[in-house]
Write a structure and sequence with these properties.
Blueprint lengths: L20 E9 L6 E10 L4 E5 L6 H8 L7 E6 L2 E2 L7 E4 L3 H4 L6 H6 L10 H14 L15 H15 L3 E5 L7 H18 L5 E5 L3 H7 L2 E5 L6 E6 L8 H5 L2 H13 L15
Helix pairs in contact: 4-5, 5-6, 7-9
């Protein structure tokens, strides 16, 4: 047994106000006689929050995200957006996938890729669409690349295009499925900071972000709150508030004692530091 015992960060879910997203008693089996992927999973996301969901490999994080986005029906339980049960992808929500090579249309330019979600809105003036596209590209540092095709861009730049496309759509809530897992470490740091910059610009509008990631450090660096899932069939093991100074920077934030304390505690919760010891006064 490890002699290390991490001090628990501040625990608890978001405030008791009306959540923008609420997951209620979700259960999922892929076959009627198959094993449960999740079993009574539930949590809330408040408007304007950045929530990260982490858990052991294979615990059902991506399955959960697909149910929250309306791409996959739960076996039982519900997901509600602004109090309305989600049964199909809602127009107020956008999803950024891990595999940017499949999320962009290679035959369309960067500008047309970002404009694509707006094409079906016949009521929106063309000038407003152009304004949104220009602002979204500027927010991810891609002004000047409007005429490029995805194949001419690096992986990190392609993922920026995917984020810009979601932001041009101006969703109430943005879901991200391990969006930086396919890029190198240096590119990943730049994309993390880009995402925080975008979030800061849209904070006053109540923009909400929810990200699934396997990377503990990434979750701490980006999120206001972390939801930790258990091994399958997964439930919410714990929810932790992340009280780190803003704005966050790669060097200072990651060396902050609070950052290191939260990381050590999450390792204990997930069983990555040998065998977890009980933390007095905390609920498991």
């Amino acid at each position: 047994m490890s002699t290390h015992m991490a001090t628990a960060p501040e625990q608890g879910s978001a405030s008791s106000g009306d959540p923008i997203l609420e997951v209620r008693e979700l259960r999922k089996r892929y076959r009627a006689d198959g094993p449960l992927v999740c079993d009574g999973l539930g949590f809330r996301v408040e408007r304007g929050e950045f929530v990260a969901i982490i858990g052991p490999s294979g615990c059902g994080k991506s399955t959960l995200l697909r149910m929250m986005s309306g791409l996959l029906a739960p076996t039982s339980g519900t997901v509600a957006l602004d109090g309305r049960t989600i049964s199909k992808p809602p127009p107020e929500m956008a999803l950024v996938f891990q595999d940017y090579t499949r999320s962009l249309y290679p035959w369309l330019t960067v500008e047309k890729n970002v404009r694509f979600p707006l094409a079906g809105d016949k009521k929106m003036p063309a000038a407003e669409k152009s304004r949104r596209v220009a602002e979204a590209l500027a927010s991810v540092g891609l002004t000047g690349f409007e005429g490029y095709y995805p194949g001419a861009l690096s992986g990190g730049m392609q993922q920026r295009v995917a984020i810009a496309r979601a932001m041009a759509f101006q969703p109430q809530i943005l879901l991200l499925d391990e969006p930086f897992a396919s890029v190198d470490a240096l590119t990943k740091e730049g994309l993390e900071d880009t995402l925080l910059d975008v979030r800061d610009r849209l904070r006053d509008a109540g923009n909400t972000m929810l990200m699934v990631t396997h990377d503990i450090d990434e979750a701490i660096y980006l999120a206001d709150r972390i939801v930790i899932l258990s091994k399958p069939p997964c439930v919410v093991a714990e929810e932790l508030q992340v009280r780190l100074p803003q704005p966050r920077t790669q060097v200072e934030t990651r060396s902050d004692p609070e950052f290191l304390r939260i990381r050590a505690y999450i390792h204990d919760v997930m069983g990555l530091t040998h065998q977890r010891q009980a933390v007095p006064g905390q609920q498991n």
